[in-house]
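hi! just following up on the protien thing from before. the input was this:
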Amino acid sequence: MIQLFKMAFRDLGRNRRRSFFSALALAIGLALLLLMAAFIRGEMDGAMDSTIRLQSGHLQVRAQSYEEGKTSLKWEDLVENPDEVVGQIASLSQVKVATLRLFASGIVSVRDESTGVRIFGIDPLSEANDPYRIGLMSGEFLTPDDREGILIGQPLAEKLELKTGDRISLSVNTSNGDVDDQLFTIRGIYSTQTNGFDSVTVFLPLAKAQAITRAENHASTIFVLLKDKEQTDAVAADLQSLNYKVLTWTKMNELIIQTEDLANSYMVLLYLIVLGITATVIINTLIMAVFERTREIGILSAIGMRGPHIMAMFLAESTLLAVGGIIMGLILGNLVVAYFTKYGFYIGKMGLTMLIGNTIYAKLALRDAVNLTIIAFVITLLAGFYPAVLAARMEPVEALRGGQ
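and the predicted 3d structure came back as:
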């Protein structure tokens, strides 16, 4: 076996440039696949992480009749006496934080411009709101007793040409079906680096949101973050006794999960296309080697080397090309992935669907790297199978004549 690979190495060395560029083609193909896999995983994991931090949490507890799409403020669709429920949830050892949130829809108006927004009534002191507090670009964060302050996103501020301290009019739907219109002062402008969220979401202190929507002592949901995401199902089972609807992060983010599954399905097809192109280069290289060494193959056959041995010799060459190309590809791919893991790829306002950040960071999982390496190796070996069979089936006499 060792002698076989020595012969294969020597044969590849006859045309080093061709052999090098064949391995390089495989390396570039593998590096490209690693980068694509890292971006897909980075995008999906980033979207899920953003959704959990900013919107869904690991769990939400709601009234049985509440429908998020309708942003209902009817009392029967809200959690009654929510502070008591929060206390029960927060007492669980797996819970990191539980806080109330009230959702409403409204319209922000300034001068002759207006735009629709989602209103989040929050407890400003809760650590669940750290993403907005840390992302404060100017001004100050809300306080629980603030009755005139509002927090808006940077994209919305840029769109309406607003700054901290400006006054805006906010029209809000109320629990009895009316519309309340009040003036608010912009206390601060925040950015979570997620344009799709920041451009439509404004924050009010929970007490003020309850007052303006006529939803006193009620909340749309109880937002729950856990110490360990893996404990979600166990905690959800413990909360079933509350007689409220308990939603897990997987249930609330089914669209992201389905999108990831769909993307992975399409990526498999794309992987095969890229590797198929690189396999064509390997096939051409080995076929050229077969025709260049036709007389040599005839001589080997004439002195007693059997077809399987000749076939194994060419498969050994494709193996060496695969190993060399994969090693170069892993080095090149990891260098490129490391760059985009650190600096990311800026997409700006393109991330409007789901909660995709303004910058996508690559994230290469060990499983993806191993799977792609194995696939690249197998396809390269399969690419060398046809030239190997072609060489093994040559008749000694015809091969000797063909080489003259």
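The CA atoms of residues 295 and 400 lie 5 Å apart.
The mean pLDDT is 85.
cheers
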